[in-house]
Design brief:
The protein is α+β, with helices and mostly antiparallel strands and 324 residues long. It is built from nine helices and 17 strands. Strand 16 and strand 17 form a beta hairpin. The longest helix is centred in the middle third of the chain and has 26 residues. The protein binds N-oxalylglycine (OGA) and nickel (II) ion. The site of nickel (II) ion has 3 residues, from loops.
Length: 324
């Protein structure tokens, strides 16, 4: 008999609402009028639920599949090998964290999220001016030494998603009646992070005291998420219902983060979401977080970098304990 999950009633997703699916091809390859029309469709989703799914985004299916395969390959290693690149060893929040290492809803969860993950950022040498100046969250990645080809695939995916994210930020600007490149000055040294995740199946009685990913908003400008076929990503709609963001092969789920909500004075919504893996299978996802330059102001006296540090300190105990 399989061990099934009993979900607290508050954790069951409603079926009444759905998140929009948007074809990105007219924006990437269309006429100026098609670009503007698609940008406004995107903008409408950003003003409403703050989540949408993109199709025809130009990222090869084979690259997405290969990146998932490499992520699985790392998570399948013995713990001691994963610990060679433990995030605690990094001065700039890069590397592997174990199940419970991140807690996206520290108010409700004592043990942290039921997932493990890897943080891959902009791979800067220690001689880079921002690193030499001691800018937090800037520096070299920790790469596994025993997985040939791993680094190359992750770097290719990272670069490809950086380009796609830049396009989507251009669509955001157009939909806000701003020049297309309005946000680009804040994206010269962006704090972009690829964070592959592995969610073990969750069984037994499930409450908000531990989920795969506790309810949270994302921190930056936008997030581009590839998820496998397990499902379990839930999004809080404007009406307050939790609804499913269902897996659709070779698409990305896109959502707004806190910094974009602030940039737009609340016109765009940074929406709460959470993950509950009751599929009975190992769930893998590839979130890519697009955050601006460290020094970008997001509110009077608050930089993007400080906002990110505050959020990391709240969700990673190891990081809070090393910060002054
Ligand atoms: C996140 C997140 C969703 C997922 O890491 O911020 O919301 O499906 N992930 O893994
Ligand atoms: Ni998230």
């Amino acid at each position: 008999m399989p061990d099934t999950a009993q979900l607290d009633p508050s954790l069951i997703a409603a079926k009444a609402e759905t998140i929009p699916v948007i074809n990105l091809a007219p924006f990437l390859h269309g006429s100026p009028a098609e670009r503007i029309a698609t940008a406004h469709t995107i903008g409408a989703a950003c003003r409403d639920i703050g989540f949408f799914t993109i199709t025809n985004h130009g990222v090869p299916d084979s690259l997405i599949a290969e990146t998932f395969a490499q992520a699985k390959r790392f998570f399948a290693l013995p713990t001691a090998q994963k610990a060679e690149i433990a995030i605690e060893k990094s001065p700039c929040h890069r590397g592997w964290f174990s199940v419970g290492g991140e807690n996206l809803d520290p108010g409700k969860q004592a043990k942290g999220d039921l997932k493990e993950g890897i943080k891959i950022g902009r791979d800067l040498p220690v001689t880079h001016p921002l690193v030499a100046a001691g800018t937090p969250l800037h520096g070299p990645n920790q790469w596994p030494t025993n997985l040939p080809g791993w680094r190359e695939i992750m770097q290719t995916y990272y670069d490809t998603l950086t380009a796609l994210g830049t396009q989507i930020l251009h669509a955001f600007a157009i939909s806000l009646d701003l020049p297309e490149t309005y946000f680009d000055e804040h994206l010269t040294t962006p704090m972009t992070t690829l964070g592959p995740l592995h969610y073990p199946p969750q069984t037994g009685a499930i409450t908000e005291s531990q989920l795969g990913a506790g309810a949270h908003t994302d921190y930056g400008c936008l997030t581009l998420l590839a998820q496998d076929s397990c499902g379990g990503l839930q999004v809080k709609s404007k009406s307050g219902q939790w609804i499913e963001a269902p897996p659709i092969p070779n698409t990305f789920v896109v959502n707004i983060g806190d910094m974009m909500e602030r940039f737009t004075n609340g016109t765009f919504t940074s929406t709460q979401h959470r993950v509950i893996n009751t599929s009975g299978r190992e769930r893998y996802s590839l979130p890519f977080f697009f955050d601006p330059n460290f020094s970008t102001p997001i509110a009077p006296g608050v930089t993007a970098g400080q906002h990110l540090l505050d959020k990391i300190n709240a969700s990673f105990t190891y990081h809070a304990s090393k910060s002054p």
